[in-house]
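Tutorial handout. Part one gives the primary structure; part two gives the three-dimensional structure as tokens.
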Amino acid sequence: MHAWQTTRNTYEAAALASLDIPLKPVAMRDFKSGAEYTDWNLAPNNQAIVEGTTDIPVRNSQLFITGQLRRDFNNGKPIGELATQPLHPYLIALRAMHNRNALLAAQKGMAMAMKEEAPGSYILERGTQRTPLPPFITTVDLDIAVALITVGCAIASITHNGIAHVYTLSRYSIAPGAVDLPRLDGGLLLHDLRANTIFPARRWEPFAIAIHALHCLRELRKHQNSNRYITVRHRTYTVRGAAFQESASSAVQAAVQTKLGIKL
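Part two.
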């Protein structure tokens, strides 16, 4: 796949996939160490979507450039275009990935507090916070809980009903320091989600971006073990090597052995 980029970070891949950037998983196994991992091959942009080859709504016909997004999220600190757009869909998707991990940590008893990263966009981080006031929303769906947290619905409690975790969240997203000024109604968002009025028409709203990114993460993990490849290194030169599918014919494997001077 010429001009495609590669990442092993599934969260990054899912966030990019939520922007309609095509990708493909290539499951790899290092011949020498036996270690298994997945390379995600990323298309350079979402050009096909922008050009109208599908019926997926495009955010203002915006071209998302893979290399630019990855560069501008500089080790977790936005620079360039991302620094000037705190509500950029890519940042919201990445916050949803962060919040998913943070919520899983909260399930194990770690204290978490809400932090506003941008107006209406939040992350969970270690700390303590005031107990949210009613009314509340209750869900056993991890993705819904994470998406609601990402738009500011704070965690009131996490319990377990014997089958699954139960997340109780504040119904309203409250602006910091403005306890009596709700910013967003999470209950209305859930109603619209279940009524199928968010997708596709409102897919670029923060809640929808978070839900879609989490869906992409689940789909990537579901398929990441397909098309398994074996990677091998040259006998002498670590910069030379090859990759071939485990199901490759004996002739292909023999050619690899001859070319690289190794024995499989």
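Part three, for discussion. The chain has nine helices and 14 strands. Residues 52-57, 233-240 have pLDDT under 50 and may be disordered.
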